[in-house]
Amino acid sequence: MKEAQTSTFSYEIGEVSKVELTKSTFVNGDDIADSVKLTNAKGIDVTNEYTVEVSSTSAKVTTIAGTVAGATENEVAYVQVTVKDAGGNTVKQSDAIKVTLAPTAVSSVANFGLGDDVNTVTGFKTALKDGDLV
């Protein structure tokens, strides 16, 4: 039987090198902070090691989490992300990041069809003509 062994593994997070958003359009109820991605100089995601606060030029960004509220039409705004360590010290601030605030999300549907012939334009046109679209 082998003896149990233990070892210690330590790592260094590294300073935040890059602050970015994973999307650029936010709708009512979205927290912009949920889309912040932080990476160190080696490109390693360190988002979970820090907290972020969002400030904006728009009054429709209502909390430090960057909660969007009151958007009734698409509007361009600029946000700044402040990155803080576990002690609450500011370690990095982003430049102005352009975002769009919108009342609802835009979605699109592509390459759909009904019936047996679902992957052709002809099949779609036939379904449209016959009133088979839902």
Query: How large is the radius of gyration?
Result: 23 Å
Structural class: mainly beta
Count of helical regions: 1
Instruction: From the 3D structure, determine the CATH topology of the largest domain.
Output: Immunoglobulin-like
The major beta sheet can be summarized as: 5 strands, mixed
CATH level 1 name of the largest domain: Mainly Beta
The count of DSSP E runs of length 2 or more, i.e. the number of strands, is 7
Low-confidence stretches: none
Q: How much of the residues is beta strand, in percent?
A: 25-35%
The CATH architecture category of the largest domain equals Sandwich
Short description:
With 134 residues, the chain is mainly beta. It has one helix spanning 121-129; strands at 16-21, 25-27, 36-40, 51-56, 75-84, 90-93, 97-102.
